[in-house]
Every structure is written in structure tokens, then in C-alpha cells.
Amino acid sequence: MNDLIRLINSFNSDEVSAFLAFAKARNQRTDVKNIALFQFIQQGARVDLDIKIYGKPNKNALHALKNRLKESLIDFIAINGFASESQEEMQLFKLVLAARIFLEREQYKLGFKTLKKAVSMAIALESYVVLQEIYYTQVQYAHLNDVMSLEETIKAYQENEKRYLAESRLVMAYATVQKALKTHPVNVYKVIKTQLDLFQISIDQHLSFKSLYQLMNIATEAATLKSDYAGVYIFINHIYDIVELKKQQAAKHLYYHCEILYLMAGSCFRNKDFNRSQLLIKELDLEIIKQKGKYKKQFEERVLLLKALNYNYTGNAAKAIEEVSSFKKISLRIRLAHATFLFQQGQPQEARRVINSFMHSDVFYEKKENLLWVLKKNVLEILIYMELNQPDLVESKMRSFKKKFRSRLLDLEEDRVLTFMSLLRLYFEHPFHITEDSFKNKVTAAFTYKTVDREDIFIMSFYAYLKAKMENKSIYNATLELVN
Predict the structure, then answer these.
(1) DSSP code string of 434-450
(2) Closest among 197, 165, 192, 190 to 176, alpha carbons compared
(3) Running DSSP on this structure, what letter comes out for residue 469?
(4) Are 153 and 176 in contact, with CB atoms under 8 Å apart?
(5) Stretch (H or E) spanning 63
(6) Can you give the pTM of this predicted structure?
(7) 318 vs 315: CA distance, rounded Å
(8) Burial tier of 10 (Cβ tally within 10 Å: 0-12, 13-18, 19+)
(9) Can you give the pLDDT of all 484 residues of the chain as single tens digits?
(10) Checking CA distances to 423, which of 109, 226, 242, 263 falls within 20 to 30 Å?
(11) Cα 290–291–297 angle (5° rounding)?
(12) CA nearest 310: which of 369, 269, 363, 342?
């Protein structure tokens, strides 16, 4: 049941409408109980579903209905997935299938001609998996091919096999690193390098767009985990340089090109290279409307948030707030960014209203987002209560923060967060000490844990609060001074 609920909840409004139309067309009887069950689950109903649907308790019938609905959903997703594939990819699959049928029917000339066309298309699409199947078929029937020699066919097969195996090794390395990241290793970069070396992966132009995206994604996740985007910037730039060299193929790999542009723009932002980040966002804006806006919905929320963050940290806070306020379906990340922007603008009461919309537990939000998101939310709450002069709530949240996160932060070697919290408590307990040189020296010592060009922009944003209090400035101005 939980799988069914998660699957239905993952549907957007267009997919819901499309599935209902699909189910109605498939239903051969007047019985529409599968549609009724889908709608009840979508509306949040969880108990007495058998009574709601059948008018009486009937757990066995409900269980069978759930299975039928799940099968319908699987069929819908599979059919919808094929329909959304690019025309070129679909054409490639059709060519390979047709070629095999021709060869089985002894239409050898037509079969080999079709395979030759499929080879050209598969190479252009960097579809090494399909190429393996094509070359396998060519070798199988090579003794009947008067045009291409067996030696040429085997050579092409072996060359492609190298690329195919390289991609396969990358998939294994990617999975291994992803698993390792869940344990929050002390040195994530060492984990990545070890796995790349172990699977003998070379980062070059032979890697497909998908593989280059996976590499960039691994580096980004590692950087996020350690709040150290500067540490992977050279590596990410190297991958992006290869993407630029292969740019003539980008149209055939639109989804992965969009993902790469997004990750690169995000990395530039986190490294405070705002001009380049904004240029990449403009390029991404143009990419997501291609192919009739096929991937627009998948990217528009993330792109909007990245635009807003760039606006905010380049002095255009009003535009940033306008951007995050304009989005209809507000995600957790957009809400937290909105609260942060309002707080930086000296509007703690409005920021609190946004924060109060988070009704679930930290455990729930960590599953939905991640630990770093939860940490930012908790720190922001404490700062808001401090600005609203609510000492009881500040004390309660500080105690809760220490109890929940101290040991985990120590395991992650994220001493900066704990240092910031200790400085925050010192200011909370002795507010008049904030202008003293001894306090300023402590803040300076804590902040120079990393050089300014290597420090993460969000870590700097929290320290800007103390800077504002020490220098009697607005929080926003202190923030801009630090990050710029």
C-alpha cells in the first residue's frame, strides 16, 4: 500500500489527468473502482477504503483492487515513457528490431542496410549499449555480408565494447560512491578518487553525456555534504570543459545537458561566481523550452530558486523575493529560501510566518530533503527568535539543536556549525559583549577556518548575522559585504 501511495503522490497534475483518461479508456466494464481507489488515495484517504468503495467491509476485494490499480499504473508509466522518448531513440530501436526480422527472413541486403543506418544513429546518440546489440547481430550474420569484412566488423565491435565497459564501470563506481556517501565519510573526495581508480575510469570525450552528468552529480553531492564547493570546482570545470567539446551532440542528449548546465550554474553560485552562474542559467532557460518544453516542468522550480539566490546575493533582494513568491507550487527549498530572504531584509515576523508553515518533524524533513537543509532551518529559527526577542524559545531551540545534532556534526567534522552555535549562545547570554574586541577576535578566528574564496556562501550567510551585530549594520548589508 505504501508503494502505491508514494507512486500516486509522485504524479503531477498533468500525469493525474493523463492516467485517469488512460484508465477510463482501458476499463471495459462500467466498473470504475480502480479510478475511485486512485482518487481516494490522491485525496489523502487511508482508512476504510473498502467501505468507501464497496459500501461494506471487504479487505480481500480491496487487496485485489490495489494490485489491479498498481498494474494499471505500471502499464501507464511504461507506455507514457515510450511516448516521451525522443523520436531518434525510438527510431533507433525500431531499426534494430526491423533489421533482425529482415535477417531472420533472409532479406540480407535490406537487413545489413538497416543495421548500417542504425550504427550511424547509435554512434550519434552515444548509445553504446544498443551498439553492442547491433555489432553482435552484424558479427552473427557477417558470413553473409558481402559489403563489410568480418575483420572490420569485429574491430568496430571491440572498440565499442571498450566504451560500453567504461560506461558499465562508471555505473558501478557511481553506485558505490552513492552508497558510501550515505555513511557520511570523513574524506568524500578520497572515496570518489578511490572508486574512479578502482574501476579504471578515464574522464574524456568518450564518456557519454549521461556519464559526464553522473560524474558531475557525484562531485556536487560530495561538495554539498562537506559544504566545500571550492574543493571540487576544478574537477567539475574539467567535466564541463569536456561537455563543451561535445556540444554539437547536446541536442541529442537534451535532458542530461540540462542537468549538467544546472549543476554547473549551481556550483558557480556556491563558489560566488555569480556572473557565470547567471549566464549558465540563461543558457539553461533556452534549453528547457526545446523539444516543445519537454523538460520544462522538471527544471523550472530548481531554475527559479537558483535565479532567486543569484538575485539575492548580488544586491537585488526585492527581485529574489518576487521570484520565490511567484511560484505556485512552493517546495520546501523555496519556502526556506523565502524565509531566509525575509529575515535578511529585517522582516523576522514575516520570516517566522513562513517557517511556521513547516508542520512536520525534523526526521520527516531530513527524509524529504537532507540533513543540511534541516540544519539551516533550525539555525534560521533560532536567529528569528533572537530577533523577535523571545528568549524562552531561543533557549529551547538551542538545547534541542545541541541534543539532536551535536554528535552527528562531530562525526561529519563540521566544527564550523558548532563553533557558530557557541558564538551565538555567547551573544545570546551576553549581548553587550558583541562589540568588544575579544568577541570580534573569536568570530574572526572562527571565520578564517577557511579563506573567504573557499568558504561556502551559506555558511558565510550565518556568520553575517554576527558581523551585523558587531558592526551595527543590517543583516543583508553585512551578508553582501562578506560574500562579495
Answers:
(1) GGSHHHHHHHHHHHTTS
(2) 192
(3) H
(4) no
(5) helix 59-84
(6) 0.77
(7) 9
(8) exposed
(9) 677 887 887 777 778 888 888 888 877 665 678 888 888 888 888 888 888 888 888 888 888 888 888 888 888 887 776 655 556 778 888 899 999 999 999 999 999 999 999 999 999 888 898 999 999 999 999 888 888 888 888 999 999 998 898 888 888 988 888 888 777 776 777 788 888 888 888 888 888 898 899 889 988 888 887 777 887 888 899 999 999 999 988 888 899 999 999 999 999 999 999 999 999 999 999 999 988 888 888 898 899 999 999 999 999 999 999 999 887 777 889 999 999 999 999 999 999 999 999 988 998 888 888 888 999 999 999 999 999 999 999 999 999 999 999 988 887 777 778 888 999 999 999 888 888 888 888 887 776 555 555 667 888 888 899 989 998 899 999 999 988 8
(10) 226
(11) 75
(12) 269
Residue (of 110, 151, 152, 157) closest to 135 by Cα position: 157
Amino acid at residue number 99: A
257 phi, psi to nearest 5 deg:
-65, -40
Q: How far is CA 156 from CA 102, 134, 135, in A?
A: 22, 11, 8
Rg, the chain, Cα only: 28
* Whether the Cβ atoms of residue 484 and residue 272 lie closer than 8 Å to each other: yes
Tell me how far apart the terminal alpha carbons of the chain are, to the nearest angstrom.
51
SS3 content of the chain, % helix, strand, coil (to 5): 80, 0, 20
- Angle 437-447/457-471 helices, nearest 10 degrees? 170
> Which triple of cell numbers denotes residue 139?
558479427
* C-alpha span between 347 and 386 (Å, rounded): 13
* Contact (Cβ atoms closer than 8 angstroms) between residue 461 and residue 479: yes
